[in-house]
Amino acid sequence: MSFWTLSTKADIGVCGFASSLPNLFKELSLGMMNLLIPEHEAKNLDKYPRFTAVWCVELLHEDYESLILIWLEEVLYNLEVGNKFLVDGQYMIRNLEQRLVCEVQVSFIDANLVERNLEIKAVTSHELIVKQLAAGELYRSIDNAIPELVGPAWVGSVIFDI
Predict the structure, then answer these.
(1) What's the domain range around 86?
(2) What does the pLDDT look like over 38-72, one tens digit per residue?
(3) Is 66 in contact with 59 (CB distance < 8 Å)?
(4) Residue 8 maps to which CATH number?
(5) pTM of structure
(6) What is the number of structural domains in the chain?
(7) Cα–Cα distance measured from residue 131 to residue 98, given in angstroms and rounded to the nearest whole number
(8) Which of 33, 56, 97, 162 has its CA 20 to 30 Å from the CA of residue 5?
């Protein structure tokens, strides 16, 4: 696990750390899903039948912060509308002539089978970070409970409205 719960005054978030940008997207996605369920339920997710699909989001050349924002919104949409609870994925981030694309071979379970104890209303851009750390570069989170992170790596932080 390379994600941590990020505590704020009114909302909740996740901070992730990974060796690559696709792995950072994966850590932030799984971290968000982990926030929704009690700890004992996280240990039981493997007992449910899994399904696969490809989910994809893209936007005109902006930045990786915007891409993670719309990706996590897509994951929430699939949860709330499609009853698809994301449990894993193989992530590919591509920079195609004028567009940024996040394409994921997802593994999901029926969300109706999963006990949830939290509802995320929205992904926010408040204190949103997606950053590549150079070798030896330090990252200190706004939450002192999260350890100091040292590059080379990618680090990200997302806050959710609950």
Answers:
(1) 3-161
(2) 999 999 999 999 999 999 999 997 799 999 999 99
(3) yes
(4) 3.55.10.10
(5) 0.94
(6) 1
(7) 20
(8) 56
